Every structure is written in C-alpha cells, then in structure tokens.
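User: Here's a structure from my thesis project, written as structure tokens. My advisor, Dr. K., wants to see whether a designed sequence matches the one we expressed. Can you design one independently, without my sequence as a hint?
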C-alpha cells in the first residue's frame, strides 16, 4: 500500500521542481531577457542540475513556452472583446489603450526584455508571435472599427509597448495622462 503514496509524492516533487525551473526562467527573462539567459543560468537559479532541467524541458523553446504561459497566466493580456461593447471611436480606443498601458505598467521589466530580444532572438520572436500575436490582432480589429486609415496607423503606434514606455517612463506622464495623449493622437490623425 505504500507504493501509491510514494508515486504520488514523487509526482508532487517533480511538479515542484518544474515550477521552480519555470519561476527561475521568468525571473531571469524579466531581468536579463530570454536571449541573454542560458539554460545553465536557469538551472542554477532553480537549484537543479542541467540534466534535471532537460528532463523537464528538452529544449529552449519548451522552457520559453512554459515561462510565457506562467507569466500570462498570472497577468493575462487584456480581453479586447470587453471593449467591443463600447461605442466606436474615442471611448473604445481609450478603454483599449488604457488596458494595454496598464498591462505594460504591471509587466514593464519582462515586456522590455522580451520585446527587445524578439527583434533578434529566433525562439523569443516565435514565442512572442504565438502568445501576443492573436490577442493583439484581435485588439487591433476591435479598436480599428470606425477609424480612418491615418487613425488606424496612429492607433497601431499607440498600442505598442514603445509608446507606453515613451509617454510614461521616459516623459513622466501619469498613466491617465498618457492614455489621454494617445487617444488625442489617434483622434487628431483623422
């Protein structure tokens, strides 16, 4: 009868080890970025041997998928369908940009490192495309309704992390003021 208990405890230990590895990857990706984080660094931060890391994650891609999955589970990207009920135009654009800017603010370090590395690191670019591509395309679709072509172009700029960083981190605007500036920029592009 002791055997099922032993197997259950072993499964729990494996799950705990896997979680420690993923947590270590999230921490390192938030501070150094995925491209600058080696699997050896993740193993060391998690307190495991490399062979243990490889037993859970056979390659960099599988670890990045788990890492991005955990980060988005903790703080999912905003749901664009919630904005679709708002009238087209400024109210909807403001709600969408406000939600995106809020997510960027809560995830500033991780977003900065990951989006920087996506420019040149193939695995990061792939994972960003998989995790961020569909929700951002849906957000664009919802927010673009009723906008002119120049307004859609400006919206595209204002929805991005670089706009938030420029308005809030670099220019020192409050979150509320940054959203207002972004909405005015979209409105005035028409």
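Assistant: Designed independently from the structure alone:
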């Amino acid at each position: 009868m002791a055997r099922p208990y032993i197997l259950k405890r072993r499964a729990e230990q494996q799950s705990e080890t896997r979680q420690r590895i993923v947590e270590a990857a999230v921490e390192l990706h938030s501070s150094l970025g995925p491209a600058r984080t080696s699997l050896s660094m993740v193993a060391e931060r998690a307190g495991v041997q490399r062979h243990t890391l490889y037993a859970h994650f056979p390659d960099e891609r599988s670890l990045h998928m788990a890492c991005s999955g955990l980060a988005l589970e903790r703080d999912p990207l905003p749901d664009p369908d919630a904005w679709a009920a708002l009238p087209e135009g400024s109210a909807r654009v403001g709600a969408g940009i406000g939600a995106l800017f809020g997510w960027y603010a809560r995830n500033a370090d991780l977003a900065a490192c990951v989006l920087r590395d996506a420019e040149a690191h193939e695995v990061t670019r792939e994972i960003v495309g998989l995790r961020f591509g569909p929700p951002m395309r849906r957000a664009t679709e919802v927010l673009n309704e009723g906008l002119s072509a120049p307004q859609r172009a400006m919206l595209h700029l204002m929805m991005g992390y670089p706009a938030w960083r420029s308005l809030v981190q670099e220019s020192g605007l409050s979150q509320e003021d940054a959203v207002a500036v972004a909405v005015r920029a979209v409105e005035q592009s028409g």
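When you compare it with your expressed construct, this may help: The chain has a mean pLDDT of 94.
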